[in-house]
Amino acid sequence: MPLVEESINEIKFNLMKQFTPSFMRALLLLTLTALLCRHSAQAQNWSEIIKVTASDRESEDRFGYSVAISGDYAIVGAYEEDEDASGGNTLDVAGSAYIFLNQAGTWTQVQKIVASDREAGDRFGYSVAISGDYAVVGAYNEDEDALGGNSQTNAGSAYIFHNQAGYLDPDAKDCRPRPKGF
């Protein structure tokens, strides 16, 4: 038995020589990180709080294709929605986006937004983002530049909205050229 213990001690000694202080610190950091991540993952308990839908929902609107949230506001794109903000002026696949507000745990639709220069097939709402009082909505098939001219088939545009007194007003339309792949 002493021979086995002696061999084990020799193996331990040889292994310890290979473990430099920086290696041991890295190993300790990795171990702690793994434990914290494992603990955090186990401590999470996600539960659905609400399902939202558009107040004017119809077949094939694609509501929910793009979503974003910032604080108490959420924006949901419906890039194949056809009606304008008041529910009229039907344009096939013009698109829209919906703003929801969380008040005391209740999420309600507060506004439907559409492009100021909406046209059939623009697909406004295909992409959405929101941060604080600003929202951005993409329309990848939109044709005109920010001034409404220089038509380029499916060139795309992004519309920036600003929350003023509880409503999102269009601030700008971004039609700058982008490199391929963006």
End-to-end distance, in Å?
69 Å
Discrete helix count = 2
Unreliable stretches (pLDDT < 50, length at least 5) are: 174-182
> Which class best fits the helix and strand makeup?
alpha+beta
Helix content: 10-25%
Instruction: Provide the spatial order of strands within the biggest beta sheet.
Output: 1-2-3-4
- N to C succession of SSEs: HHEEEEEEEE
How do you describe this structure in short?
The chain has 182 residues and is of the alpha+beta class.
Kindly list the characteristics that best describe this protein.
2 helices; single chain; globular; four-stranded antiparallel beta sheet
Can you give a write-up of this model?
- With 182 residues, the chain is α+β, with helices and mostly antiparallel strands.
- It is built from two helices and eight strands.
- It has helices at residues 2-18, 21-43, and strands spanning 63-70, 73-78, 96-103, 106-113, 124-131, 134-139, 157-164, 167-174.
- A hairpin with a 2-residue loop joins strand 3 and strand 4 (106-113).
- The chain is globular, with a radius of gyration of 27 Å.
- The termini are far apart.
